[in-house]
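Title: Prediction job returns without error message
Component: structure pipeline
Severity: low
Priority: P3
Assignee: unassigned

Description:
Job completed but the reporter wants confirmation the result is attached to the right record. Sequence as submitted:
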Amino acid sequence: MQKSALMEIVNSFTAEESERFSEFLSSPYFNKNNIVIRLFDIIKKNLPVTEEDLLNKETVWKALYHGKPYNYGTMKNLIHELTQLSVYFIYLEELENTKQVRNVLTVSALSYRNADKALKSKLKQIEKTFTGKSFRDLEYVLSDYYMEMSKIFWTKWMYQKSHQLKRASEKDFLAGSATTVYSFLLYLFKMTNNITVQSSDHNYELDKNLVINLLREFGTEKIERILSSVREYSARDYKVLSVFWDMCRSQLFDPGPEQYYKFKSSLTANAKIFSLQDLEDLLTCLVTTLFGLKESEINKYRERIDIFDIMIANKIFIQRNRILPVHLFILYVWNLFNLNDYEGIEKFIKKYGKYLTEDKRENALRFSEVCLKIGEKNFAEALEILLKIGYDYSAMKIYVKHIKAICYYELNDSASFIYENDSLRNFLKSNMKVNESVKESLKYHYRMISRMFQLRSKFDIAEFKFLRKEVTESTANIDSWLLKKVNELKDS
């Protein structure tokens, strides 16, 4: 039973969901079989089930039927019935948490039943929310919301057409058309981010992707003309679509610092319009756009901190359950480290360390301590702490590898650096999930430090000038550790 679909579902229940499912089963509207109720009561007492022999069918049968001989068919039917009820319960739970889908179904049902007064009351309530100045209180993404509103406007218009003598409302007719287009465009623009990221990570060909080809076929001029029409219809919705379009352009049509800053500017200016979920998604897309730019074009570390600070200002940096994901904590510290902002790291740890989960906190704080030790020039201590760090996600291994090279250089420990450098190829092979550009950045870091060791051992003015030029042109971060150390070589 443990490996069945039923056990997969009930093991996924929270304590609150388990109680609600018990109430669901006890309702005669949904279930009239008392044995099914007793079956779940037995299962619930053993949740979560982790061992095959902890809860087997024969044991359950004895508790249900008291001395009757085991009947495979009856037991199978009971499990099947409870499984179907659990699936239906999950559906109802999801429906309860999806207000707009409920609105569509309600409007459709009231329209079908010709419940005129109830329908008009419900539509008035829905449209009052839709005509607000922003979508900040929306609990889901705008692409879905516009699609559901298009269904509601079309249902309303069809009801008018069928049930009233006067002409059906042109306003509702146009609103149905407009929200359909809004939804379609938003889906296309949003998919650009997902497709470009996943194509890069998995080496898929962009030219084979129909969404990308469709957008390219439209071209920027046609899309700009469509958006101009939107602006004449609704200033609010034009702002929404323009931000998503700026995101799409920054990744597909005009990748580069100029379009990145345009996207960032329009998002910052219109942040209050969006639901928190849409705003979080857009900021993630901004990070994606930034990731595709060259280190020499823009200070990525400063920009990432700016993006995180926008998340903090809009209260989406910490999740609703008051938990800060460890990768965000580490990434914030890592970017401050690369900006030599050790005071900022201390303030961040003090304010946000408490939001890490217990199982992630120790490693995250150790990593932060390593960065602070380097700021204090206690490189040997930093290396000792690194030995104690566990890796909660793959990028941490890259950061640690990066930091080790820094420490060995600062300690003038060429032997340890050579060993670390020799192991780099196997390290990168064993971490296949790490993005190729991140791997290239790490290899570049080691190459530069290797050349710095050589110059430290035997200084050559021509090589020094060549190295300094290469490092200077490779980064827009004036606080770069590499840049600082290369410049120090001349004085040593």
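Comment from assignee: result matches the submitted record. Residues 50-54 have pLDDT under 50 and may be disordered.
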